[in-house]
Design goal:
The structure holds 2 protein chains of 2 kinds. Chain A is mainly α. Chain A has 14 helices and no strands. In chain A, 73% of the residues lie in helices and 0% in strands. Chain B has one domain (3-328): Orthogonal Bundle (ABC transporter involved in vitamin B12 uptake, BtuC), CATH 1.10.3470. In chain B, 52% of the residues are buried. The chains are: A mainly alpha, B mainly alpha. At the A-B interface, helix 6, helix 7, helix 12 and helix 14 of A face helix 5, helix 11 and helix 14 of B.
Chain lengths: 377, 345
């Protein structure tokens, strides 16, 4: 916010925004760490009360998250998705727009990545050049589809006053239904043993560099980190990001300084949906290589809300929060196989993290804000 | 605007809704024998929890508090009902235990929504973030508690409530199968809808609730504590959502905590039902019935040999929700919703 111009209103806004961003950063980190620690401790307590050995469970948690190369790859794979979807949520929440539809935008982005690649693959040469071309086409298509699917509730909110929380939740149901119907119908691979689209060609994928895992590549994580940095720069250092955050935090002030609030809402939702669409693209290119019935796809887009809240809606903060959720999820799949403790315990612990993050967040937000609701209907 | 002109304006809009949506549907339905008593009763079973939650939500919003946590409170209601039934009667609890479970759900959600109301009204927490938090807490806690009690995320089969059959009267055409061989909880829903309409529009406290959302200053000037009215309405909304969850469970007879849980978006549909029904309990109940009917219609179409994909047909309520919010989302909201009220004195 150093690039304040000389206009008086702008300076006032700058100060206000600075205060919003800097005040209580330590407090936010403190809330996040305390919430996570408390949730883990209570989780261990519940494990003990249920008659299992909590020390053994804690040990399994760590082994499952980072105990081997395979575990690390699994953790980073899941973290990649949590970070990207978390950033998608953070973009919108930061601007006071409650995009609960990241799951739907993620699904739409995923299918919009797979199908163009499947259709165009026979027309292009195979090998690395064709692979890169197809990845670029597919990813672009996924990003655009995710952006458009989010622009719709954004426009409905901005120009018709439709509450975005409810429309995005409805659009999640609609995305799951329609994509599921397509995957079971027109898009289904008739030769596949299960319900899914055609498999992407083998040369469409990220190369293995560090981990020898078929579903994680450091390239996917690298793209993710690059996107996080890009989003952080857009929010913190550009006029568009400035308009977004100020219209989220101080709507009247933003309007006075000439920000078109309606257009900002649509732009914010589109931006958020584009990141969610990219998450869908990475999901299919790096991990699955096809698209299945979205009923069975994990709810990354919902957990992303918890990830973003844990990070106080800060894009950079989403990285550690996403790593934490990736680690917990990864440990969950380890525990399912290697331990007597029901793996659902992990979901419980994740739920507790959300609980503790959400609860102090209420007090903090109640103190820090008036008008962040973004509900101007 | 006077309350009288306000309600009459609503009646016109609700009437339009009925004419435009329901009558052609019913005409087509009767013509093609699409509507059977089984279909109607299944639709009522789907609609009743949505309608109960919607009544709670509209009372809160009428009073000036947007309770977006209905879905979360419904999850707690359903979970409490399942746990109570299982705790009292194991995996085959008797009918009496179902009623105890309903009461337990209301008690638990009264406590939870009282905490929620204090956060919103006293501490002026953001109504949207706090409401979402209730949902997440529900989604997070349900699997933990289910896992603790049943060792997995599903309760397995418990009991569902039996119909109340009045011998003789149940044989009457049309009325018999609807009113005299029916789930008591659906009958209770009819009563709730009627009473909540009368209370809101025909009692003094009902006017206070409307004034708390529409013109809190005037209510305050008249010597009524605005925040007390809002506390009552918010706690009532949580209790109704809890009851809605319990009613859902009593009809289904099992609780599943995976994914979006057994509640599966019905609390959200409750919010939309009262928006669609124009903040009128009867309108909200009709909207809930419409959602219930749409939910069940794919089954009916299949019995007639029309093979529309049930997946696509099941999306119709969600699409309607988006359209309704777009067309009507802006118009009828009480003017002071979302604003904490501070008395001048």
């Amino acid at each position: 916010m150093s690039s304040a111009d000389s206009s008086g209103a702008r300076t006032v806004l700058d100060r206000a925004a600075d205060r919003m961003l800097d005040a209580g950063v330590l407090e936010r980190v403190g809330i996040a760490i305390a919430s996570t620690t408390l949730a883990l401790l209570i989780g261990l307590g519940i494990v003990a009360m249920s008659g299992y050995n909590p020390a053994l469970f804690a040990n399994q948690l760590i082994i499952g998250a980072i105990g081997s190369e395979a575990a690390m790859a699994r953790t980073l794979r899941l973290s990649t998705l949590f970070i990207l979807t978390g950033v998608a949520v953070a973009v919108a929440f930061r601007a006071g727009v409650f995009n609960i539809g990241v799951q739907g935008q993620f699904i739409v982005g995923g299918i919009a990545t797979v199908m163009p690649i499947v259709w165009l693959a026979p027309l292009l040469p195979s090998g690395p050049i064709g692979g890169v071309t197809l990845i670029v086409i597919g990813t672009t298509s996924g990003i655009i589809a995710g952006g458009l699917y989010a622009a719709l509730p954004g426009a409905l909110k901005a120009y018709a006053g439709a509450n975005e929380i409810i429309t995005t939740i409805m659009l999640n149901f609609i995305a799951i239904g329609i994509v599921g119907w397509l995957v079971m119908g027109w898009f289904q691979d008739p030769n596949a043993p299960s319900t899914r689209t055609e498999q992407l060609p083998e040369y469409v994928g990220f190369p293995q560099i560090v981990f020898s895992s078929s579903s994680f590549s450091i390239i996917g994580l690298g793209i993710t980190i690059a996107v996080v940095i890009l989003v952080a720069i857009v929010i913190e250092r550009t006029g568009f990001g400035y308009d977004m955050v100020t219209s989220g935090h101080q709507q009247s002030a933003a309007t006075y300084s000439g920000v078109d609030a309606k257009r900002t809402i649509v732009a914010t939702m589109t931006f958020s949906g584009m990141v969610a669409g990219l998450a869908g693209a990475i999901f299919v290119i790096m991990i699955t290589g096809n698209f299945t019935n979205p009923d069975g796809i994990s709810t990354y887009g919902f957990d992303a809300i918890a990830v973003s809240l844990l990070a106080a809606n800060n894009p950079i903060g989403v990285i550690p929060a996403g790593l934490l959720f990736g680690g917990l999820d990864s440990a969950g799949s380890h525990i399912q196989i290697h331990s007597d403790v029901p793996a659902q315990m992990i979901d419980g612990i994740v739920g507790l993290v959300v609980l503790f993050v959400a609860a102090p967040e209420l007090f903090r937000m109640a103190a820090a804000r008036t008008g962040l609701g973004g509900d101007d209907r | 605007m006077s309350v009288a002109s306000y309600t009459s304006q609503r009646r016109v809009q609700i009437g339009t809704l009925g004419l435009v949506v329901l009558i052609p549907l019913i005409a087509v339905g009767i013509e093609t024998s699409l509507f059977t008593y089984g279909f109607l009763n299944r639709s009522l079973a789907v609609a009743s929890p949505i309608a109960i939650a919607a009544i709670g939500g509209l009372y809160a919003e009428k009073s000036g508090v947007f309770n977006i946590g209905l879905e979360g409170f419904m999850i707690f209601g359903a979970l409490t009902a399942a746990v109570t039934m299982f705790g009292l009667g194991g995996s085959s609890p008797g009918q009496g235990y179902i009623w105890i479970a309903l009461v337990a759900s209301v008690l638990v959600t009264v406590i939870l929504s009282a905490i929620f109301a204090v956060l919103l009204i006293r501490y002026k927490a953001d109504q949207i973030v706090a409401g979402l938090a209730v949902w997440f807490i529900g989604l997070g806690f349900a699997p933990v508690i289910a896992t603790l009690i049943w060792g997995r995320r599903s309760s397995g089969g418990l009991s569902s409530i039996n119909n109340v059959v009045v011998p003789g009267l149940a044989e009457i055409p049309v009325i018999g199968p609807i009113f005299f061989d029916q789930s008591p909880l659906i009958l209770l829903t009819f009563v709730f809808v009627a009473v909540s309409w009368l209370f809101l529009y025909r009692t003094q406290y009902g006017y206070w609730i409307q004034a708390a959302g529409e013109n809190p200053e005037a209510l305050d000037t008249a010597g009524i504590d605005v925040n007390r009215v809002r506390y009552a309405a918010t706690i009532f909304s949580g209790a109704m959502a809890g009851l809605a969850g319990a009613v859902l469970l009593a009809h289904l007879g099992s609780f599943n905590a995976s994914g979006d849980t057994t509640v599966d978006g019905r609390g959200w549909l409750g919010i939309v039902a009262y928006l669609f029904g124009n903040y009128n309990p009867i309108g909200a109940a009709l909207a809930a019935l419409l959602f219930g009917g749409l939910d069940m219609i794919s089954v009916q179409l299949q019995t007639l040999g029309i093979n529309l994909s049930s997946r696509i047909v099941n999306l119709v309520p969600y699409v309607i929700v988006v359209v309704v919010l777009t067309v009507w989302g802006k118009t009828q909201m009480p003017s002071s919703v979302g604003d904490p009220y501070e008395s001048e004195d």
